[in-house]
Every structure is written in structure tokens, then in C-alpha cells.
Amino acid sequence: MLESKTRSTAATDSSHPSGDPRFALIDRTLKRFRFQQDALIEVLHTAQEAFGFLEEDLLIYVARQLKLPLSWVFGVATFYHFFSLQPQGEHNCIVCMGTACYVKRAAEIVAALQTAYGIEAGQTTPDGKLSITAARCLGSCGLAPVLIVDGQVLARELPETSVAAVARALASDRPDAERNGHQSASNETFEEDNGL
Amino acid sequence: MKRSDLQAMAQREVDRQQAFRCRLLCCASTPCLSSGAAAVQQALDDAVAEHKLDAEVAVISTGCMGPCSRGPMVTLQIPGQEDVYYENVTPESARQIVAEHVAAGHPVADKIMPSDLPFFAKQTKVVLANSGVIDPERLEDYVARGGYSALAHALREMTPEEVCAEISKSGLRGRGGAGYPAGLKWDLVRKAPGDKKYVIANGDEGDPGAYMDRTLMESDPHRLLEGMAIAGYAVGAEQGFLYVRGEYPVAAKRLEKAIRTAERRGLLGSRVLESSFSFRIDIRIGAGAFVCGEETALMASIMGRRGQPTPRPPYPAQSGLWGCPTLINNVETFGNIVPIIENGAQWFASIGTAKSKGSKIFALAGKVHTTGLIEVPMGITLREVIFDIGGGVGEGHTFKAAQTGGPSGGCIPAEHLDTPMDYESLRALGSIMGSGGLIVMDDTSCMPDVAKFFMEFCTDESCGKCVPCRVGTVQMHRILERITNGSATSDDLQIMEELCVMVQETSLCGLGMSAPNPVLSTLRFFRDEYEAHIQRHECPAGVCQMTEVPTLDLVDALPRRIRELGTVPAVLA
After folding, report:
1. Average pLDDT in the A151-161 region?
2. Is the bond leading into B314 cis (omega within 30 degrees of zero)?
3. CATH number of B359-445
4. Is B247 on the interface with A (CB under 8 A)?
5. What is the mean pLDDT of residues B55-69?
6. Going by fewer Cβ within 10 Å, which terminus of chain B is more open, N or C?
7. pTM of the model
8. Cβ atoms B55, B22 nearer than 8 A
């Protein structure tokens, strides 16, 4: 708490006291919307883009800057599916569960992935390697069932081929470089933060 | 920019385009990109350079051409000849098209999709007229096809009253689902007192299985902006918001670019086309909440709050964003404005049926031969859409039902295939037009399972504000779960029917009110399937596992048993 107080008072400086340049991105969005409280969702979008997920510390920072109660910010962040309060895995696999994919047996794909990796849709493996997400509709209904593995869209999948595709992605160890960069960088900074 | 500058710009672009001997259009919308359109475009570019055809052949990346399941699509346009559509193009066949068709004039026969197929012949492109023909990222392409001349015409020759009257006369109804007359809404906002008014385009297409709005935003962003600007002029608003679903980053990026370009050229922003009218458009990115498709929830979301609906009245037309009168229409509705102003209300009213005018875009998907995006005149029968345009269901299967309207709609069975697709006929069948998702199901789909799928969706997406929706959807989902795993009793069916009516009548917003629709419509047309699950413990389609058995309700059954026997059963004594 104390830490975030110093943070908000120092926010007028060009850089954030933690030295993390990603806060500058949030500050830029804040300034673009002239610190209007109505811009909360836009600011959260920027924060999530920069950090990969919304850590509690980040929510406190946003709440302070917009002069909103933390409960309000937390309420909005948890209301929308898009915002994630948990770190995501190194690799991600999004299974479309839209109607078109569902009638073409997307549920079996999810079930196959669940048994293969022991996690439910919406969870990350304990080693932080893989996140499985079920999406509402990816809007590629003509290609149903659709799967996105590390940003790559795979069309007309079967349970076996999807498990194989995820296994390939995990084995390649060349995940979505950007996300990985964010992830490891953010972990470092949070450790530093805790150290302070 | 003045009107004359606009005309000069259009002329310049037309001249530039005519200088090319032919144009290769490569679809760059999301479905084609996922099938490898980027590599195809690269191959086309390389092949054109290789054959030294740069000066006479233009390679253009366009929006959606329609038959998404046959992508990547490439169209070859040669002036004076009919367009040739190539389907399932690979980088190799792209090089072949350039080498054989473009350079030597011999079409690559095995990749051609005949242009006289009912898929193309039965469509009426009004809103999608530019989609798949222009480069969505170039303003000049849009202007060359008459873009922004409708706005110029409205600003110069029409009063706001006349614009509203024209929209009313056209008979255009909201394309978001409910079908409220657009002209009436515009007039309400125009007459509402207040200096500050807003226009919102609802592009939060959360309905699973629907992607019309995304395609329109990605393929022809300027048409949407122009439609919004005309609306702003008609109702007296100077600020517009475009609410784009968070899952559509490409659409948001293209719209952002389109807004910047239009503002730089004086087609948006202050003093539009050097008139006294100013109109700004800002994009708001949704954050993944289906309920934000509801207008009051969407406005809450624009104001940075949780997307929870508020009771109506007051309607947004009286008190919307920040308490100001607000016009809120679906993206597709705004897509219809330009053609109406351009061609007149009479022309528009000549398409469609007596009560549903114009055309409607459907996202045809599911178990049908050709899936994709189609635009058909209102009143076309479901049979024509599925069997002529879509090419019917797969070999060896029979058509079972078509689902329209997503989680708020219903299933239409085979005996109603000749129903005309318009707002009233679909409602009479217990479904709705909805935003235009059309999922075809064959005999391998289990209807209680489909109902369960939609109920799970509603349970998850219920915002939690009102009790009937928050609790009712969970209860209905549990019953459907029991039906599909074999543990339901016939009481469950009755309880579910009662719940449906209760949730429908007492929910706060459209999400809850329409959540029981998929259950009610499947119960109405496929009751035998529910009964097979409950009484015979079998799933006719072979989808449900049926691993459980009904649990005897001891609280209820034991006292009755004791009464019957006159003594406590031996096992319990």
C-alpha cells in the first residue's frame, strides 16, 4: 500500500519509481484521456497489453491515478472476460467454442486437451508452460472447428490433431516471443517490487 | 476538402485503376488469412514482379468475398470481361494464375469457382457492395466507388428532418436483432431536447457463430464512418463512438486508420466537407462481455463501468451516454445508410418484403457445404439459403435444423424450410432474426445438447444484476445437464418449462428475456428428442454420453413407500 502511495505521488515524473518503462505506456494512455474516470477500460487494456496480465499492484496504480475506489477498478477488471488477473502460460491454446465449432464437435477437442494436460479450459499448467482457453467465438465459423495455438490459427481440427499441434508448440520452445519476453520481464520486476 | 475535391479525387483514382490491364484481388479478411492468404498475396506479388507485369497488373488486398470455407480467395478482374473467382488458392497456384491466366490468357480451370453458382447468383449485395472489391485501408478506393458523396449530398441538399424522413420512408429496421424501425429512432433522438447528443455504432458482436459486423468493419470501414456521420448530421450529434468487440483487433486497427485518414482529408472532424457540421468518431474496444451488446450495458461500458444494463425507460433516445440523448444502432444498420441516401428510399424499399425492407447479411456456418458470408434480400426462404446458396448439408446426412439468432434465437426444423426470412416470420416460429448468425445442423446434432450449449453460454454471460437471469439460467442449465447425462425425470421437463416462462417474463434486459428461447424452440419442435433422453435413456443423435441414471428422490419417495407398505421397509429398519 505504502509503496503505491509513493508511486502515485511520483507519477508526474517521466518514469515510474520502479524503473519499469512499461508504466510509461499506462501514463501515456492516462494523459491521452486526461485522467478521466470514464477511460478506465481503455487504461486497463493498455495495462494488460504492457504487462500481460493485471496484477493487483497494477490495479492499485490505475485506481490511484484515476482517483477511483480500488473496489470499482477490481469490479470492472473482473467483470470483463478479456482482463486476466492471473499470469498466462508461455504457450497458449485458444479453442473456439462458438456455435459453428460446437456443432462440429469442438467440445471433444477441449476434452482431449484437458485429459492430455490435466487442466481445465481457463487454467494454466502448474509449470506455467501452457494455458488453455475456451473462446466464445473467433469469427472464423467457415473454418470450424478453429484453434489458435500461439497466435497461429488452425482450421478444421480434430481432437487428435489439436493435441498434436499443442505438443508441437510446447516442444518447439519457440513460443510467442513477445509474450514470453513480457512474461519473464514482468516476473523480474515483480520480484524486485516485493523486495522493496 | 470540398465536394468538388472529392469528385476530383474519385476521378483520379478511377483513371489510375483503369491504367492497369487487370487487377488481382486477394482476400485478406480473417478467415482467408487463417487459411494462408498472406502467403498467397506474397506469391502473387512475386510472380507479377517476376513476369515484369508491375505496370499493368495491380495486386490488391481486399475484404471478404464471401465463400470463407473455400478460401483463400483470389478474384481476377479484367475490364470488359466477367470477374473470375479462384478458390483454395495456394502460393503455387497463385504463381500459376499469374503465369497462365494473367500473362498468357489461359484460365487455370481446376481452381475456378464458377461465377454463375447460386452462391453468387442468389445474393443481393447492398451493404457488402464494396466488400471484396476495394482495399479497405485506402480511402481513395472507397471514394472511387462513390464514397462520401452520400454525406456530401446530405450535408448540402438535405435538412436533418429530410434525412430522418428518408430513412423512415425506406423502411430500414435495426439489424441488431429486434428490428426497431431505424427512422423512428433517429427522429426521436433528433427531437429530444439537449445540446449534446451522441451516436453509437454497436459493433460488439458477441453472438457465437456470427461475424457479419466484423467483416463489414474490416472490409469497408469508411462506409460505416460515412453512415455514422450522416446519422450525426440527422440527429444533431457531434460525437460518435464505435464500440468494437475486443476479439476483433484487425477491425479496430482498420477503423482507427480509416478515421485518421478521413479526418486528415476533412471528411470527419471539424467542419466536415467545409460545411458547418462537425463530427468526431472515437473507438472504444470492448473487453469481452456478451451483455454489452445490450444498449444500456454497452453505454455503461463506454463510460468505463461494468457492462450491466439499466431498466428502460428512460430509453437511450432520451437519456443515454452521460444523460444525453443517444442514437445507438448496429454496425450493419449504419452500413445501410449510404445506399439509402445514394439511391433513395424507394429503391431500398423495393428490396425485401412488405414489412422487412432491404437485405440482410447472414453468416452461414455449420454442417453446410459452402460456408461463408452472404447477403440476401429479406424474404428469401431458408431452403434457398441452405440448399441453393450453401449447397446443402454433407453427403449422407439429412438436414435437421437451422439455428438463427444465436443464444437469443431458436431452431427452425425441416418442415419450416420454406419460411421466408423476415422479422415477423422468424418470430412466429419462436426464433429471431438476430444479428444474422445462421448455423445449419444435420442429424448428428442433438437438440437438447445444443440447448444446453446456449444455456451454458447465457449462464456464463449473465451479468448478475437481476435474479431471474442470474439464478434461472443456472437452474435451467442444471436440468439440461441432467437431461443430457441421463439422470433427468419427467418432472424436470415440466419444471424447466415453468422456469423458461418465468425467466422470460421477469428478466431485466434482453439477455435474460431471450435466454430461454433456444430451449423453448427445441422443446416445441424436437420434444421427441427430449423424451427419448428422459424415458428411453438414449440420445437419438448419439452425442450425449448418458452415463448417469435418475436418482430416486428419497424425501419424496420414501414416505409414499412407507404409506403403501404400512410399515418401514426391511432394509431401513
Report:
1. 87
2. yes
3. 3.10.20.600
4. yes
5. 91
6. C
7. 0.89
8. no
Q: How many residues would you count in chain B?
A: 573
Q: What is the pLDDT of residues B32-42, one digit of tens each?
A: 888 889 999 99
pLDDT of res. A135? 86
CA distances from B216 to B253, B302, B318, B340 (A): 13, 21, 29, 17
Q: Which of B435, B550, B394 minimizes the C-alpha distance to B205?
A: B435
CA distances from B308 to A76, B294, B297 (A): 10, 9, 5
Enter the ipTM: 0.86
Subunit contact A81:B406, Cβ cutoff 8 A? no
Mean pLDDT for all residues in chain B: 92
Rounded-to-5 percentages of helix, strand, coil across chain A: 55, 10, 35
CATH, domain B16-119, list 3.40.50.720, 1.10.10.60, 3.30.470.20, 3.40.30.10: 3.40.30.10
Q: Residue B23 belongs to what H/E stretch?
A: strand B22-27
What domains appear along chain A, each with residue ranges and CATH number?
Answer: 2-85+185-195 (1.10.10.1590), 91-173 (3.40.30.10)
Judged by phi (left if over 0) then psi (alpha if -120 to 50, else beta), residue A188 lies in: alpha
User: Helix or strand or coil: residue B190?
Assistant: helix
Interchain proximity B403–A146, CB inside 8 Å:
no
Q: Specify which residues B58 forms β-bridges with.
A: B23
Q: Which of A32, A38, A41 to mutate to test the interface with B (most CBs of B within 10 A)?
A: A41
CATH fold label, B146-348: Rossmann fold (3.40.50)
Cell numbers standing for residue B340:
439509402
Tens of pLDDT, residue by residue over B146-170, are 999 999 999 999 999 999 999 999 9
Indicate whether A78 pLDDT > 90.
Answer: yes
Chain-chain contact of B34 with A139 (C-beta, under 8 angstroms)? no
Contact check, Cβ <8 Å, B403/A99: yes
Q: CB under 8 Å to B549, separation ≥6 — which residues?
A: B486, B487, B537
A139 and B372 within 8 Å at the Cβ level: the answer is no
**CA-CA distance, B243 to B31, in Å (whole number)?**
22
Q: Are B16-119 and B146-348 in the same CATH fold?
A: no
Chain B residue whose CA is closest to A144: B366
- Write out the DSSP string of A67-131: T--HHHHHHHHHHSTT--SSPPPSEEEEEE-SHHHHHTTHHHHHHHHHHHHS--TTEE-TTSSEE
What are A113-150's pLDDT values in tens digits? 999 999 988 888 998 889 998 888 887 888 889 888 88
Nearest to A143 among B69, B247, B289 (CB): B69
Q: Tens digit of pLDDT for each residue in A157-186? A: 899 999 999 999 988 865 444 444 343 333
Smallest Cβ–Cβ distance between A141 and the set B305, B365, B453 belongs to: B365
Answer yes or no: are the C-beta atoms of B279 and B272 closer than 8 Å: yes
CA pair distance B157, A20, nearest whole angstrom: 56
Q: How far apart are CA B450 and CA B453, in angstroms?
A: 5
- Domain extent listing, chain B: 16-119, 146-348, 359-445
pLDDT single digits (tens) B121-134: 899 999 999 999 99
Backbone angles phi, psi at B509, to 5 degrees: -125, 180
* Residue B149 contacts A where some CB pair is shorter than 8 Å: no
